[in-house]
Amino acid sequence: MTILDLNHIYTDYIKHILPFIKNGVFIDTSVMKIFIDGYINTFFSKKNDEQYNNLISILEYLKLINKWEKFWITPHILTEICNHFCCDYNKRKDYKEIVQSIIPILKQLKEEKNFTKEDILNFINLNKPIIELGDISIFLSVDELVNTSYKTSILVKDYGFNNRYENAPNVMIID
């Protein structure tokens, strides 16, 4: 690869990616679960975790590695993450050390606004009900931005986000 090629990649990043991530990235439960599980596998269980390594590669490419303050999280996502975390790891002997390692990362995440019960219940399609509060909280947050010039992005492992925002020019899905 030549320097010209590197400049082209950097220019593409500035033009096509940075506008969507500069104000922060919404992060879904599924991605945080991959991160937490992989982090614990890598640093506590000393196992290689391919999904974690792939996620770290994506974060490095996006220049978001170790920049947790750039990620938006809703209280509903945080609830789901804590539930997974507790259910999956609370029986481990090193649980206290794991918590002491993960909580500082979670504290760095930005918190998006909360939604009312009415907002959430009105969002649910009664003909095709999908009741996943974490996803709904991200949908409600991003939907407020879709019709503005504000660009945003969502880091997910969920095809529903791709379908919902495939024609939204101000939303970038990082799947």
Number of strands: 5
Task: Classify the secondary structure makeup into a structural class.
Answer: alpha/beta
Q: Quickly count the helices.
A: 8
Estimate what percentage of residues fall within beta strands.
5-15%
Reading side by side through the largest sheet, how are the strands ordered?
3-2-1-4-5
Low-confidence residue ranges:
1-6
Q: What is the typical, i.e. mean, pLDDT?
A: 89
In N-to-C order, the SSE pattern is HEHHEHHEHHEHE
Shape: globular
User: What is the CA-CA span between the terminal residues?
Assistant: 27 Å
Q: How would you sum up the major sheet?
A: 5 strands, parallel
Helix amount, in percent?
55-70%
Q: How much is the radius of gyration in Å?
A: 17 Å
Produce a short descriptive summary.
By secondary structure, the protein is α/β, with parallel strands linked by helices. 59% of the residues lie in helices and 9% in strands. Strands 3-2-1-4-5 form a five-stranded parallel sheet, sandwiched between helices.
Question: How would you describe what is shown here?
Answer:
Mean pLDDT is 89; it is low at 1-6. The protein has a five-stranded parallel sheet, sandwiched between helices. 59% of the residues lie in helices and 9% in strands. The protein is built from eight helices and five strands; from the N terminus they run H-E-H-H-E-H-H-E-H-H-E-H-E. Strand 4 (152-155), helix 8 (159-165) and strand 5 form a beta-alpha-beta unit. The chain has 175 residues and is α/β, with parallel strands linked by helices.
